[in-house]
Amino acid sequence: MSSDILLFIVYGVVVVALAWPLGLCMARLFEGGRTILTPVLGPVERLVYRAGGIDPQASQHWTRYAAAALAFNAVGWLILYAVLRLQGFLPLNPEGFAGLSPDLAFNTAVSFVTNTNWQAYGGETTLSYLSQMAGLTVQNFVSAATGIAVGVAVIRGFAGSDTAGPEARGLGNFWVDLTRATLYLLLPLSVLFALFLVWQGVPQNLSSYVEATTLEGARQTIPQGPAAAQIAIKQLGTNGGGFFNANSAVPYENPTPLSNFAEMVAILLVPAAFTFMFGRLVRDMRQGVAIFAAMGILFLAALALTYGAESEGNALFANLPIDQASGNMEGKEVRFGVGESALWATATTAASNGSVNSMHDSFTPLGAFAPMLLIQTGEVVFGGVGSGFYGMLAFVVLTVFLAGLMVGRTPEYLGRKIEAKEVKLAVIAFLVMPFGVLVFGAAAATIPMALASVQDRGPHGLSEILYAYSSATGNNGSAFAGFGAATPFHDTLLGIAMLLGRYAFIVPMLAIAGSLAAKKKLAASAGTFPTDGPLFVTLLVAVVLILGGLTFFPALALGPIAEHTAMLAGETF
Amino acid sequence: MRKKPDISLFDTKVMGPALRVALVKLDPRHLMKNPVIFVTEVAAALSTFLFLRGLLTGAGEVAVMGQIAAWLWFTVYFATFAEAMAEGRGKARADTLRTTQTETPAKLLVSLDAAETRTVSSQTLKPGDLVLVEVGDIVPADGEIVEGIASVDESAITGESAPVIREAGGDRSAVTGGTRLVSDWLKVKVTSKPGETFLDRMIALVEGAERQKTPNEVALGILLAGMTIIFLIVTATLEPFLLYSGAIVPVAFLIALLVTLIPTTIGGLLSAIGIAGMDRLVKANVIAKSGRAVEAAGDVDTLLLDKTGTITFGNRMADDFLPLSGTDERHLAELVHLASVADETPEGKSIVDLARKRLGREIDHDDRIAAAIPFTAQTRISGADLKDGRELRKGASDAILAWCDRTATPELSRLIERIARSGGTPLVVAADRKPIGVVHLKDVVKPGIRERFVELRRMGVRTVMVTGDNPLTAAAIAAEAGVDDFLAEATPEKKLELIRAEQAGGKLVAMCGDGSNDAPALAQADVGVAMNSGTSAAKEAGNLIDLDSDPTKLIEIVLVGKQLLISRGSLTTFSIANDVAKYFAILPAIFVAAYPGLAVLNVMRLESPASAILSAVIFNALVIVALIPLALKGVRYAPATAASLLRRNLLVYGLGGLIVPFLGIKAIDLLITSIAIV
Question: How is chain A split into domains, by residue range?
């Protein structure tokens, strides 16, 4: 117990200690400044621009920025879809896997392009090495880089430039941001992290699978492959798609306590660094710290709930000869225990990572409630790289709007007025989660073809549906594993949910940023509501909780909460 | 200034028609403009249909369904009633105005020199027409005086009973339709189209007919519509989820859940708040040309205030008597009193007042003064010759010294310099051609103005005093009044420059002015308050017009603007916070059919599912009625920093909004179960 608490504290300290300097480096990087890697990577960067015919100085209006991001993602999706369908005819396929079905290829391609990494397939039994490396790993990088680029562009709009004028209305250049995010940020971090993982024992090879005879004499196939590289980026880029089906619960993905800790830090690293980068880019660190604090409070609350519920164990086992002294151990690695599993589960659902080191489906009802709610807030508690931050800014817009009215001033944030246009766009973004989770979830809970995928009866079955559609719409990618998602119905609907969750957020947020960038910056006075103090943090936390809570409480009551009360009553289904 | 009497909240003359008008407003075509209430009306209609069908088919829970339907209709009705009340109060105010707005005959002049006039109806006047207005006539339309001087009774508009002087040329050349001439005659060039005079605009404004939604109101409307859509999704998808969970719940219950969740409280009161905000302005005798201007007033960062009339009374007044050696203060007071008795200027009167105060008694002067010496431009001194032969004089130091034929002693020079440096004007007093003391005349800062500035500073509004005085005097008065900054030796150009500089720094600027040369600055300012006594150019340039021509009004306007936003924000927060309790009332009632264990969510221990749902619906309807007075009067607003305002409002309306419905719903549940209607 106390060792778990110590783990949580050390975790928090390490995340902040690494994210703060990284945030400052990122600010420098995206302001176009020189970095320590510029001498090495500068020529590569310039080569990319020359090859692509890109003028790195040309700042794009938000519409052009959005169009570039969407076009880039559309092309990426098309290529990935083709590779997955055709992998049987392509090289680097020692196991001779056939191409994927259209619906599975659609789902998987969408999943990786949208940075969701929902896996309706089992990696080692479905995908060739080429599909993994040239398909998925590439998207692991560029989908993360897309999120980061959009996040940076949105921040530029909020920060604005001090000089008004037509050129100030640009949000930067998508191609430059994409290149820089990949080249200077994700690649170097991944190389370092991959080397660390190889040192810890994660395989990085292109060998055929190994046949082994176990101690009992059973024969076993041990999959191999270029795992370390993909695991590094899946954690750092909030992707979450494991190289192996069991994700980070497998020793080959996550061999040691040290690798487990490092992988958990990697989940939150870049999303947390975004808050500090924001502080630097708006020239007011307190603004960044305030948003970090709001995210941190929500994170701690979720962690407390999950850890508490998991430590408590399963009430149904109370009268059975089962030792629950170490909590609910179903679906957890003994080597991780409740503490490290709960922390991972919270981190991976707070950030839209989705990698797992334990099975969320086997959590106690309330233990799974918190991760699910974290996703349903729209993945704004740290969230995906870039996307979590711009998602949180939508809540900031709403919070500032309410607060502004309550102090009798036209609401403003960082000196720019929040008016009807911004509210309208934020409202569009807020409709995404209810639509993807509730409307699609209701369809899945009604249509008989869809219901076949549900493993358990009673409220837990509804939890499985809700979790799947929350995870897809929130671009998280983790799942209640009992839910059989690989059907044409769910592949398609979940794919649409992922697209909605990604682009119905990106476009309105870029539009808000574009609109704010064009506005005149107003001076702050005592009548301006300060957005860097504890009062604002409290209000922001309350708005996230109340909006998320009011929207999803009824559905959650019929899922995890009903399951919880039934568990306490000793009722089974 | 005589304030117009306020209209009582429960005035039957307002309430009666409002009850009827509210019924007319139930027309869905009218309600379309308000998505929240429109959805409520659709829900009411749907539940009525379900109730009627239930009656025919004999379904269960019909009694509850009927009551839910009834209360949903009440919810819609209460919302329209709130709007009708706000409009009714505006109308009541408009009716008082309209009594002066009767059609009047106008004496039309063919040309300025024409001797003949032709009598036409005021309704036919066009801009550019010339009319003659003579004593006893009602001014037929808004216009600019081209010839003549007259005193005008403007009490119909301003409530001020003393007539004011209006004359051609200068800054007091505008007349307002509906006012009455009490002396002389005027030739007036009409500036307004029929039906578009200030009075017309004001009436339209208070009646709500011309009311356009203000920018923040539009933004809030979008947010409320968005929340309505979210809750539509929530309740619509709840039925499949319930079916999945093996429960069939009456649709009427889901409709009840929908209506209690969508922000009906603020949705129902939103337009009432807007109308009432305008009404408060009209009550303060200010016409806003647009709602946007009122909201902008709440955002103002910098307030430019004219010194004269706003910060000071505008006349120099005696503040102190400073005797030279050889004279004591009482003696000086007595002599200067005698020297000033015949002086009818405000300065002279103030000297007499101060002398009386200092001496503590009346002085018998009638039989001591032989002759009063009036002020002339040549001598620049005034005073009196006494019967005992003494000659008393007062005036500017150089004039008095010239009269005395002396040079200033070092003592006198020191006194004069000290007064000048403090922003005052020295008035030297001499007896028998020998200076005996100095009267310190100063611009007296209005009492209480310093406190207003402290309030404004707390709200984050910076005050800048604008004056034609030299920088020395300006600095002294600025320090005494407690303004943040001042603009000395101000010219219209300098004023405009200052506004531009402030705006370039990202500040919103408000100012008031009356002269034609103020017009550019009024137009440049984000909030320009034109004095009604001012020129029509100034009135065109400003976006607010103060009918009382009281520059201090600017401060009230800022407060009204802020209060308008705060009322909306607070009630929105209250409305959203209410939803938590409603969830805990309705969800367990609906969900126990699926999972009996979920009864633990019934934290209020409401009697039965039916009573719980009905209580929530009744509370939701009644809270609108309960908040109508708040919407009409505006939430309490005391100037404070944004952070402390927010803390207070969050505590009252956020936390209050969480707790109140728990208590209210429980109370209603106890009541309706005790009288056994469920």
Answer: 386-568
